[in-house]
TrEMBL record, chains A, B, C, D:
Keywords: Plasmid
UniProt keyword annotation of Mitochondrion present: no
Protein name in the entry: Nucleotide pyrophosphohydrolase
InterPro entries in the record: dCTP_Pyrophosphatase (IPR052555), DCTPP (IPR025984)
PANTHER family to which the protein is assigned, alphabetical: DCTP PYROPHOSPHATASE 1
Organism domain of life: Bacteria
Keyword Thylakoid: no
Signal peptide, first to last residue: none
Transmembrane segments: none
Length: 104, 104, 104, 104
């Protein structure tokens, strides 16, 4: 039985290796690529009200962010849901419930 | 039976609602928050060789990026593995195999 | 007698007003536009050694960053050299000389 | 006779050299530092209406962006007003007047 995250990572590795791109994928440049895609995501919203951004473009740019985020996690051999759960636990400590009026 | 992505989304929604933060989570500011976390991720690598960045800090900042990326996808009710697979298919068209010497 | 910064600001205001763009230029979106240009600047260096980036492209993207930075300062009616000198003084306090081995 | 931009550049060089930081200031990391400061600038506006951001913090983060932008230009020995004027001329070609209803 497979799970969707492992399937995606397998495909990402294959995609990279077929193109011989592992040589470029050091973690510093992967993080840089991720932040460039994050800026392209932000560009979809630029000069606009949140609801006026084109969802098809949001979807595509968000996908690029996620693809680099997954590849960076994979570079370090990290389990993605685990690192997310770990950070959520930390965030819960930093922002205890009942301070609803604080900014997020 | 549950899957890890749905579990994470459920916890993220609960975390947000317990703090009454849905009011802040419009897609434009979620995308902005994501790009700010992406910059914090990049800061771990600033002035350093890729291998000299502290993995514990990379892990934490990458988690923040992923948490906002998941929340943004959830805002639009998108299936995360599906939007990633869709973009990978598009990228495969844009970058056909056998052009290994091109930059990624 | 004119100075180059005032001349640039005058031209930027005229450029904006001829196109009726003042309506878009709230400080939040100007800051967002600036960070998007900063990402385009970073893209020139992506997957490369610093010395392999194309200077002509660096120059152009850096100019876009500066143009938005000047417009944001102008939005608040700030004197640009003054705000820079002010921050340099603060940085000098934060990073006293003689700690040369620290990271910047 | 001095001009304010040359004075700032002189001070920035002195600040850097007193701390022995020239070794870190390759153009790739300077561009990265600039984009990290741009994200800190954006953070002042996060989850807020444009008019609710604290001007004192905007001023400080914008100064950091400008300080890195000036240092990057100086790294390439570029004249700052000149590269800005050059880009404004290009932008005027790309966005001819009389298309006021277009997005900037």
């Amino acid at each position: 039985m497979s799970n969707p995250i492992d399937d995606l990572l397998r495909q990402l590795r294959q995609f990279r290796d077929e193109r011989d791109w592992a040589q470029f994928h050091n973690p510093k440049d992967l993080a840089l690529a991720l932040s460039i895609e994050a800026a392209e995501l932000n560009e979809v919203f630029l000069w606009k009200k949140p609801e006026d951004a084109d969802p098809a473009r949001v979807r595509e740019e968000l996908a690029d962010v996620l693809l680099y985020a997954f590849q960076l996690a994979d570079k370090y051999n990290w389990d993605i849901p685990e690192l997310m759960r770990e950070k959520m636990a930390r965030n819960a400590e930093k922002h205890p419930v009942r301070r609803a009026a604080d900014l997020p």
